[in-house]
Amino acid sequence: MKYETRLVITYLVLLILIVSLAGGCLEQSSGLSRENGTEAIEEVDSNRSSSTGHLKIEAVNLSGFEAGNPALVGNYRLEALDIELKAPQYDLPLQESDISNYGEFSQKFLTDDTALEKLKENGFVVISNPYNPKEEDITAMYNRLGNEGQLIFITSDTLLHLYHVQFDDSMSRVEQKELYDLLWELDKAMLDASVEEYNRASGEEKEAARRNAAYFTVALSLLQPKEEQIKEIKDPYDPEAGTYFEPVAEEKYQFETPAFVKDNVEAELALIEAHEGFETSPIFSYREDYSQYVPRGHYTHSEILKNYFKAFMWHGRMSMLLKGKLIQADDPEKEARIQTIQASLITSRLEDNPDLLQKWDRIYVITAFYVGVSDDIGPYEYMEAMESVFGNESRNFNATTMEELKIELAGYKSPEIYGGTGSGTHEPVIIAEQADELLEDTKGFRFMGQRFIPDSYIFFRLTGPYTKEYTGNQEQMPFTYIDSEYGNNRGFPRGLDAMALLGSERAVYWLDELNDSSYKNYSLRYGELDSEFSNFSAADWNRNLYWSWLYSLQPLLKDYGAGYPTFMQTEAWQDKELSTSLASWTELRHDTILYAKQSYGIDEGLPVFGDKPVGYVEPVPEFYNRLLALTRMTESGLEELDALDENTRGEFERLEFFLKKFIEISKKELENKELTEEDKFFIFSFGETLEITGGLDEESTKTTLVADVHTEPNNKLVLEEGTGYVDMAIVAYKVPDGRVFLAAGPVMSYYEFKQPMEERLTDEKWREMLEANPPERPEWVSRYRA
Predict the structure, then answer these.
(1) Integer-rounded Cα radius of gyration of the chain
(2) Contact criterion met (CB below 8 Å) for 128 and 715
(3) What angle do CA 493, 497, 499 make, to 5 degrees?
(4) Among 750, 463, 768, 408, which Cα is nearest to 600's?
(5) How does pLDDT run across 153-166, given as a tens digit for each residue?
(6) With CB atoms 3.0 to 4.6 Å apart as the test, which of 81, 115, 188, 730 could cross-link to 786 if both were Cys?
């Protein structure tokens, strides 16, 4: 697809927007990157066929990778690893007499017979947290263990959760401190421009300008602070500091609703505030899912973020359609033409006003770095299409020119994920071709469209219109069936689907075992997706922070073979790592819920430990290496965007320090080498030195989070992914001198369940559910949890 613009904008923005055209769909982006990058980037995975094994990872440096990638991708640098895998082994089942510290440890943590049997069988077990079964701080257990003199097991769960905390905090800071005001200024200027155009135009162009005035008035109304959201808090240490708008906001954020759109705006706002599900939009005349406008994720932490969430959701979901098929009106094609004129007027205003375009660019580039590019076409695509239609001539938006513009825009990409637009008004979708037609029908202009993410793409391709009919044993009701009270048997996706396509053979096993792959065409669609995903290069996987987070999880999903510790070679450990990865993915969806398109020095005074053990680091250096590269990419990318404050910089630097130490220590563990006194002190004092979350409020560090990831409008249900209280993992590990010890550490818990769409859960409601009536854990948890 060609891409040109007449505007001179920054190099960074140009590159981001090139990717929005060339990289929005999987096939386009992966083809471009593979063609230009496979020779420079190579990974050699573990060779598990030998008696010991070998882990060799080539360095990845995406600096200057290719002209078609955004400059921020160049911040990804993965260091080389070369490790001989020869961790000392022990026989399973374990015997009590084999464990050096069994007596002391068992009296404290292994009083349950089932837990003891699972420990003996697998070399590890996960139990409810004996210190606090409802613990929400993943770091608390380390200090408790250290204070009691127990051996510490430092888990991958801890590092994943700490990265989530920093990712989420950095995003919420830039949203609250900068993006809110930018969006307000942009919407206010666009409202003024729309009123001006309304007063001078006539015919359909006048009606388009009127609707634009209504569109931007709704956005401003959602952003504007209400009286109850304003509160003066003088003490910066007050827990409510930063939660409310300051008193000056009442005067600062003022605008006037044009009288000629008042009724439409009030009707639209009433639907948004009721958030009861699908209703016909008074402004756009197609059905919209108003249940999406409930602030969720970190957006419940302040009044500013609540309003930002609603306004950005409005801009991300509402489309100015090219076709009238989904529009409920006497003349749908006329309505679609007016909506196309709306998009053209907005684009022209941005194009003619560099200051406004710069504000739009700033918002888009920052959010694209976190989550990715829009799944829908937007201002730059319309700029190019209008240049092709009008050239240097004056722009007359009449029926003839709009038809020419529609033809030109038909050559641009359609959405890859169905986001629910017009649900219930289209014909029943039975086959994949009809689903593609539906995507084409939702094509149109979104001012700040929701972003393409691979897991939603997977869900859309594997379930719903593509694989609707279940072909398995009807008596064995899989997860994807709806409860009988809803009277419909249409399938839901599972987090397992995403993990399977990230490389988890264990996820594939459980999908088959639980009858969640027994759908018509499931194998066909899965094979197509597997072919796409398996061909991605490191550049494809590190195009933005969202994709790179998923890339970091992949080493945890592998089969740990010869040379790894005994407990890691069991199927039960694969199940545990699958749960950890799903919990981390849930945190990712939680943090990006607004933007993601839903388918539908310590070297002084060291004590001397000698041969005394202090604990064990989970030996997954490939995972730590990728998470280190992701952390550095996050820090350097935000610095390039001038969106990194000193506190956030310090937090990322501390996380980098920890990750480098974990790579160093886990490499020694895998190579069966003695740890140094410094290594032992690092493990021993981990609880005390874990200050990476210092300065954040308690709410920001809790492990109890929830995110809705998929909507089934026919059944009015959403798929919720949740993380729960902190559990304790107990592992048996062997040291070079032949002794076997038990160590304990914190691990995350994971839930997946369905919820009525009008009751999409916030973190606060999820915590109430966990306290009173928690859902069942996934089936595979019973393999390793007592």
Answers:
(1) 27
(2) no
(3) 140
(4) 463
(5) 999 999 999 999 99
(6) 115
